[in-house]
TrEMBL record:
It is found in: Cell membrane. Belongs to the G-protein coupled receptor 1 family. Putative odorant or sperm cell receptor. It comes from Myotis myotis. Keywords: Cell membrane, G-protein coupled receptor, Membrane, Olfaction, Receptor, Sensory transduction, Transducer, Transmembrane, Transmembrane helix. The lineage of its organism: Eukaryota, Metazoa, Chordata, Craniata, Vertebrata. One of its GO terms (cellular component) is plasma membrane. This is Olfactory receptor. One of its GO terms (molecular function) is G protein-coupled receptor activity.
Amino acid sequence: METGNITTVTEFVLLGLSNNPQIQVVLFVLFLVIYLLILTENLLMLLVIRADSHLHTPMYFFLSHLSFLDAFYSSIIVPKLLENLLSKWKTISLLGCFTQVFLVIFSGATEACLLSVMAYDRFQAVCYPLLYMVAMDRKVCTGLVGASWAIGMGSSLVNTLLLAQQNFCGPNVIHSFVCELPPVLLLACSDSHMSIASILTTVGVLGFGTLVLLLGSYARIIMTALRINSAMGRSKIFSTCSSHVLVVTIFYGSGVFRYMTPASGSVLEQVLSMQYSVVTPLLNPLIYSLKNQEVKAALRRMLARQPRLTF
């Protein structure tokens, strides 16, 4: 659309992962299977946590929100990715792109806060076990989760509103499979310093701020574990927290690097985006269930309660 001598972009083109039709079909099948697995795994985690009273603890309350968030996060990205893999015109409207940007930042910021809250929960459980249920009562847990969602919403709203004030007059090709703030800002014709400063501040405060809380919590946990004389006790503590550390490493390693470096449309950037938007939601339930004896026991109890067919 043209306004005077200025052409205004009304839609963007997502280049996606490949232009080869045969490869696109293979990718479609692959990501469809991955998406179905993500939904199945995370919804199963939610069902197991809700159905088993042994898992009605603060740790699994936070984990249930993480599972819901992972299913939501992948649903923001994968359906549009699947559509574009089969579509000749890989376009997304301006509003649709801004909505995706908003939801991606919202999900990422909320997950960063949730991971920090889960580290604090483990810190209380390991370092102050006698006061744990008092310190982490339902009111505190609900407040921490509510604050995580609210911070994610606020940071996303600020960054998306600043993005919406930019002018886009062409080109309109995004070198990615998803609308994210860094590659979209590359296409802005107006001064984008405010948006860049805002996203860097968001990543700096939320990313590194929550990372400091995480590292502080785990440093105290390690110090407490080393003071325990029992090798079994130390092993139990490290086993409980190892899955969380693995999730944090995957999420922060890819997410912070993706948003703190200038966008260039490189293959590495697409790999990083795939890492925290598709791979992490797929791995999180597997990491928690395969490394957690309580979850596996709860799943066995749930399956044992199912009525058996008789002939």
